[in-house]
Amino acid sequence: MDFLDGLRALAAIWVVLSHLWILLRGMNAHSGLLGFLTNWALYSHLAVDIFIVLSGYCLILPVVRAGELRGGALDFFRRRARRILPPCYAALALAILIYLVGHHGKPFPWLALLSNIFLVQDAFLKWNIFDGPLWSVAVEWRIYFLFPAIVGLLKRHGPWAVLAASAALSGALTAAIFAWRMDFLLSCPWYLFLFALGVCAGWAAPRSGARWDLASWTLLLLTALLLGRNPITAAGGADFGRHMPMIDTVTGAAIAAALIALHQRPESRLRQALSFPPLVRIGQRSYSLYLIHIPLLLLLSHILNMLALPWLRAPLSRAAALTILGLPSIALATWGFYHAVERRFLVKASSGKPSPG
């Protein structure tokens, strides 16, 4: 279903443009026309919500078709490790090389390296210094270890049991973070529930006779209302951060409902738009794009700083230079990284095409 890759592409593009803008102007909202045109870029955390729900949705589709988790839990872990880890570590190596360019002569942060190797940098944010977006890869990687249990619970007791169990576990972990140590907030334990929403959406989509369009739009409206009440402001995102579990949960529910609605309506204009071939191709390479865009933006920013050209001191000129040079460079590097690294580790489905997720 090409529309899944199209949605994945939009989420990845949102993340890239967001990080480009934040690198230029910081994580602060603006007022007036500038704010109207750019404040959306500050909320790319919601794009990660899309990735998490899509992951659960795509991973359950082969189970729905086969009626079981092919090869069992150990084979699933092996396939996920092959799909996720080699590109992740290759991107980490690239990011470290770029980090060394900008930190020549300074002590190397070995603890940061270890936290990235063991994928715990989401819990130790001060060590998440090489490639910032890898925090979400770490979160999703741990969720994978619960997928076989989710499948077993789904087959025995149905989707409501999965949602109840995942809500209880993620809710307890989230409460512990708020009560004990907010430093762990970016571990996002509530993402387990978003992943479960995606799983249940993929399970329900072929079975449900109900129309999910209204539910999706209603939940998206609720997300907008929550963002309006808890925005990222000129002072930063403290309010947004405190309410992130609620905002992410409603966003995840909206995306899950939208996936069911899109599955039910192959003729819809939105699904056809998401299936636009260039968008689909970006979506198929979105993991590579997600992994390498930040190190490349940081490298380009460092080069512009070294050039010290007077005209680059003006914010508009610097923004133009970083955009005009950065986006094509990222696109070209993504193409190269995908073909040199990621493509080699794609898990093939029986059709010979890369399997979903």
Please summarize the sheet with the most strands.
Answer: none
**What is the helix tally?**
16
Number of domains: 1
Radius of gyration: 20 Å
Which whole number gives the mean pLDDT? Answer: 91
How much of the sequence lies in strands comes to under 5%
Spans of at least 5 consecutive residues with low confidence: 349-354
Count of beta strands: 0
Which of globular, elongated, flat, extended, rod-shaped describes the shape?
A: globular
What is the CA–CA distance across the termini? 12 Å
Category by helix and strand content: mainly alpha
Secondary structure: helix percent? over 70%
Order of helices and strands: HHHHHHHHHHHHHHHH
Overview in brief:
The protein is mainly alpha-helical. The protein has helices at residues 2-25, 32-38, 45-66, 72-102, 110-117, 134-144, 147-157, 159-180, 191-204, 213-229, 238-242, 244-264, 269-274, 277-284, 286-307, 315-340.
Tell me what the structure shows.
The protein is mainly α and 357 residues long. The protein has one domain (2-17, 45-345). It has helices at residues 2-25, 32-38, 45-66, 72-102, 110-117, 134-144, 147-157, 159-180, 191-204, 213-229, 238-242, 244-264, 269-274, 277-284, 286-307, 315-340. Helix 1 (2-25) packs across helix 14 and helix 8 runs antiparallel to helix 9. The radius of gyration is 20 Å and the shape is globular. InterPro entries: Acyl_transf_3_dom (IPR002656), Acyltransferase_3 (IPR050879). GO terms for molecular function: acyltransferase activity, transferring groups other than amino-acyl groups.
